[in-house]
């Protein structure tokens, strides 16, 4: 039976806890029809990975290895109960790598709400830029990821770039940004990044408490969003 929502553990650093999901049945674009969405619970940073089709458990693990593990180490993972994530192959891979895996409850699908909200924004972005030619969506995926990681997040008050890197990643084509603002001495950057991470933990903890209180009082689940931008 349904019970009170239990919040996920509060991460202590970027990319230690992630949520994953798929956007499927997209128009074929350079042989891609699916997007793997990966969200970092700490910074709200995202990675968007185009795939030729809905992957098997092994191919999903391979995509995570190429796009997360080799950059940020092995994180804990939250996912829905799709066949990839309930398979014996997936469980075996995660056990061998000592990865903690959490599956969302059917009574509380909002446990994976961060990745669902990212998918909603992603489909809006692609619908806006690809309305004339939907087969072009894979060309814009890089920019969709950049845009998502450049938005200031209410939970932390920072952009994902600031939370992970310690500064805001900025394209050099911006004429209003000087080169000096893009570089920081390594020592000061280390202290600044540590302070940013500490502040982010506090903000995320407060945001989780407020979110849990609202859901437990109302008993409502987050809405499910249509993820096919072609509709």
What this model shows, in words?
- It comes from Cyprinus carpio carpio.
- This is Integrase catalytic domain-containing protein.
- InterPro entries: Integrase_cat-core (IPR001584), Retrovirus_Pol_polyprotein (IPR050951), RNaseH-like_sf (IPR012337), RNaseH_sf (IPR036397).
- With 231 residues, the chain is an alpha/beta fold.
- The chain has helices at 57-72, 83-86, 88-96, 113-129, 137-150, 160-165, 186-218, and strands at residues 17-23, 34-40, 46-51, 76-79, 101-103.
- Strands 3-2-1-4-5 form a five-stranded mixed sheet, with helices on both faces.
- Mean pLDDT is 78; it is low at 220-227.
Give the SSE map:
Elements: E1 17-23, E2 34-40, E3 46-51, H1 57-72, E4 76-79, H2 83-86, H3 88-96, E5 101-103, H4 113-129, H5 137-150, H6 160-165, H7 186-218
Parallel strand pairs: 1-4, 4-5
Antiparallel strand pairs: 1-2, 2-3
Mass-distribution shape: globular
Oligomer: single chain
List the helices and strands in order: EEEHEHHEHHHH
Biggest pleated sheet: 5 strands, mixed
Low-pLDDT sequence parts: 220-227
Structural class determined from secondary elements = alpha/beta
What is the helix tally?
Answer: 7
Q: Order of strands side by side in the largest beta sheet?
A: 3-2-1-4-5
Q: Average pLDDT across residues?
A: 78
Compute the CA-based radius of gyration. 18 Å
Strand content: 5-15%
In which range does the helix fraction lie?
Answer: 40-55%
Q: How many DSSP E strands?
A: 5
Q: Alpha-carbon distance between the termini?
A: 34 Å
Pfam families: rve (PF00665)
Organism: Cyprinus carpio carpio
InterPro entries: Integrase_cat-core (IPR001584), Retrovirus_Pol_polyprotein (IPR050951), RNaseH-like_sf (IPR012337), RNaseH_sf (IPR036397)
GO biological process, one term: DNA integration
């Amino acid at each position: 039976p349904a019970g009170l929502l239990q919040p996920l553990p509060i991460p202590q650093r970027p990319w230690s806890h992630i949520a994953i999901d798929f956007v499927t049945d997209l128009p074929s674009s350079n042989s891609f029809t699916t997007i793997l969405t990966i969200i970092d619970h700490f910074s709200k940073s995202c990675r968007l990975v185009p795939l030729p089709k809905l992957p098997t458990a092994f191919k999903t693990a391979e995509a995570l290895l190429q796009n997360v593990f080799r950059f940020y180490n092995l994180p804990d993972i939250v996912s829905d109960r799709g066949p990839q994530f309930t398979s014996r192959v997936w469980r075996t891979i995660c056990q061998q790598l000592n990865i903690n895996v959490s599956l969302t409850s059917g009574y509380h699908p909002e446990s994976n709400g961060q990745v669902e909200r990212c998918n909603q924004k992603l489909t809006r972005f692609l619908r806006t830029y690809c309305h004339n030619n939907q087969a072009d969506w894979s060309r814009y995926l890089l920019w969709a990821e950049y845009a998502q990681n450049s938005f200031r997040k209410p939970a932390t008050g920072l952009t994902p770039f600031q939370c992970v890197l310690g500064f805001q990643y900025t394209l050099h084509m911006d004429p209003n940004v000087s080169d000096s603002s893009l570089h920081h001495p390594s020592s000061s950057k280390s202290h600044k990044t540590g302070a940013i991470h500490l502040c982010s933990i506090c903000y995320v903890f407060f945001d989780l408490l407020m979110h849990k209180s609202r859901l437990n009082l109302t008993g409502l689940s987050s809405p499910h969003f249509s993820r096919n931008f072609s509709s």
